[in-house]
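BUG-394 | component: ligand-complex export | severity: low

The export step for magnesium ion jobs runs without errors, but we want the raw record kept on the ticket for reference. Input record follows.
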Amino acid sequence: MSTVKIGLIGKPNVGKSTLFSALTKAPVDIANYPFTTLKPNVGVGWLTSRCPESEIGKKCTPREGNCVNGTRYIPVEIIDVPGLIPGASEGKGMGNEFLDNIRDSEAIIHVFDASGMTAPDGTALQESRDPVEDIEIIEGEIIAWMADRLYRDWDKFSRKADASSDRIERVLETKIGTFGIRENQISLILTRDSFPSKLSQWEKEHATKFASLVFRYIKPIIRVANKCDAAPPEYIENIRKFDSSIYFISGEYELTLEKAMKAGMIDSLEADFKVSGKANQAQSNALEKIRGFLSEKYVTRMENILFHIVRDVLKYVVAYPVADESTWGDKKGNILPDALLMPYGTTALELAFKVHSDIGEGFIKAIDCRSRRTIGKDHVIEDSEVVRIVSRTK
Ligand SMILES: Nc1nc2c(ncn2[C@@H]2O[C@H](COP(=O)(O)OP(=O)(O)OP(=O)(O)O)[C@@H](O)[C@H]2O)c(=O)[nH]1
Ligand SMILES: [Mg+2]
């Protein structure tokens, strides 16, 4: 079943792979995910959500992910994109191939080095530089990359499009649908700013504006300042002044904590962890340093960023489709087998299609399993709703 995909971008050496490791290490035993279908740079992170199992008084049996003490772990795919360098949009560095990775991403985490110790091309610096300027360099590259592809062969394309009677969003979809951008999303972008109504009147700057809106509304970029453990306070302050929504983290510390947890040195990944006798003095000191860092008010944890992206930015809700409104199970007796992430606004009929195209095609009605009331095809699924779809195929 398809899930939300989030890409990690940034210049080389800023800690993307470190964050990727931290995000994709399961905090609890979670084995049942079809990892074999994933590409090497794709991993699974886990979004937590309260499971409705206690309401039905039975232990759930998730098909994917796991449920521990009433917390459901729902898979989210994370894509580790190789480092971007200035000029990447013109094919420099690893060029187009890696930028194509963002096609699959619904949201993009832009990781930058808050300590300012990496040059634009990713090499280590002897003396740090203000990291704020990096933010716009990299984002400018992806915007330029998309604008370039959109505007390629524009003369021929736009003349043909203007001569046809097709809607502008439909013809644009034929050009950029390969980036995973759909007609309705193109419509949304066109309403966010003014664009000439005839495509042949578009200049390159319109393509650039269009691309920048894609990364604001369709594949939103979430900025994450990494290596904050090594960043001087004035850099943190500059970054915050530049954009107050930036998250401050240390991927290295996150990873160290996970390793310490696995080794039994600490009992929790929260900042109030207790250090066990398994840690030697040096390890205890390092862990105390990490605790101090995590206790700083400006610092965020990785899982909170993931949660924020899926819930607040992409506005996904969790739906629990079941086959029986009294047991909340499927036909085989699995309780609440699926926790599906869907954008808010998804209707009962769309949920049916997501479960299976046959179920969507044979849709008769749906039932809200809590109230046992019938809901129609246009009913918008609320977060944590347990829904039975009644379909002709059943
Ligand atoms: N101090 C500090 N170092 C970090 C942190 N995260 C990563 N690093 C170090 O930064 C270096 C680069 O980390 P990677 O995760 O490989 O960076 P990357 O962005 O994936 O690099 P490319 O794949 O080459 O683009 C490594 O030496 C990491 O140990 C952090 O939070 N703090
Ligand atoms: Mg890497």
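Assignee comment: Attached the raw record above. DSSP finds 14 helices and twelve strands in the chain.
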